[in-house]
Amino acid sequence: MHLELPRFTAAFGSLCAEGVRALARHKLRSALTALGIAIGVAAVLCVVAIGTAGSELAAGEFDKVGTNLVWVEAGSRNINGVQTGSHGTTSLTVEDMQAIAREVPLLRGVSPQLDGYLSVAYGDRNWTSPYRGVSPEYLDIKRWEIAAGAAFTHKQVEESASVVLIGDTLRDRLFGQEDPLGKQVRIKNQLFEVIGVLKPKGGSSTGRDKDDTLLLPYTTTQRKILGKGFSWLNDILCSAVSREAVNPAIDRVTTLLRQRHGIQPGDEDDFNIRRPDAVVHAQIEASRHLSAMLIAIASVSLLVGGIGIMNVMLVSVTERTREIGLRMAVGATQGAVHIQFLAEAVTLSLFGAVAGVVFGVLGSVVIGHALEWPVTIPPRALAIAPAFAVSVGVCFGFYPAWRAARMDPVEALLR
Predict the structure, then answer these.
(1) Backbone torsions φ then ψ of 126, nearest 5 degrees
(2) What pLDDT is stored for residue 383 in this prediction?
(3) What angle do CA 5, 20, 349 make, to 5 degrees?
(4) Which residues does the chain have with pLDDT short of 50?
(5) Going by DSSP bridges, is the β-strand pair 214-217/190-198 parallel, antiparallel, or unpaired?
(6) Which terminus of the chain is more solvent-facing, meaning fewer CB atoms within 10 Å of its CB: N or C?
(7) Which pLDDT score, from 0 to 100, does residue 351 have?
(8) Range of the structural domain that residue 309 is part of
(9) Quick one: 112 and 133 in the same domain?
(10) CA angle, 357 then 361 then 363, to 5°
């Protein structure tokens, strides 16, 4: 056994060397054939890299959406064919939020929400940002951490305290390198203390800057921003205890709100409930299916390269008919001739595969830089693509090798 392995290694090396010498006789033809394989491998690797990056971005967006989020929005989504929104709709109240938190145990967190845009000023700087009036539970529901300072408390909510949390973009626009904690900002001619800075989340899949935001206690928003008498909510954000509990929780919330709002059977709801995580999950699945389809399309170029290998090998067999006859006349077996030409086809596809890996990695880097995506090629793809290319060489090189091995030595020498 110990003697057979070196002999096998030596024989394999000899076959590869012979294959390289044979291919070197027609350098341009061999290079163009290998290029077809290289393009196929590079295309597959680029598609895999882009698809993986897209899936990772979608997964990152899924993480930013929130923990098992159930979004109760004021206003029916469609009334008599007219799309309605939450703003200006008075169907959701703080009492509804409290009832949901009290009577739906499938929810582990509930926060009211009021939103809009506010102009925020500090010194001679000002910036208009989206704001949200929420409760302390909002940060846990939306998986939002505090980078500096602290979140407002339930006591501050009860007291309608003039405190705010700011996103990283708003901090940069108003304070630059200055520490914002404890500073006073002006909103509607009122002073609010910055008690915390939110940890950066980056942009959303739609390009919106999530860090350009301002969070206030919802009671402060109702009484000091929107004015006295404003008692309704735009939304109620909820977090289910698990992903499996989301749909049952939606059913319970729907039943509860219909009862509280006195909605009769068959009548339209005056609210709607959404699952943002379901949308992002659908985006992830769509990205995976699209990647699989693009990989299949890119693999066609590998098959085209395989046809090129077959064509080149058939020409090579025809050109080397006398050589084949001479080898068989001096004792070469059909198996040896078959393996020799098959080794040439595999060597050709292997060169193409190596070049394809190089092109694929460089192409992925360029594409990632252009899209500003963290594009990486999975190690598994780096192994599978060349292996597939070599298998293409074996499959498409088999017939020319078989044809060479089936030649009659006498007829081959007379040609």
Answers:
(1) -150, 155
(2) 80
(3) 90
(4) 1-3, 5, 8, 79-84, 86
(5) unpaired
(6) N
(7) 85
(8) 16-61+282-414
(9) yes
(10) 115
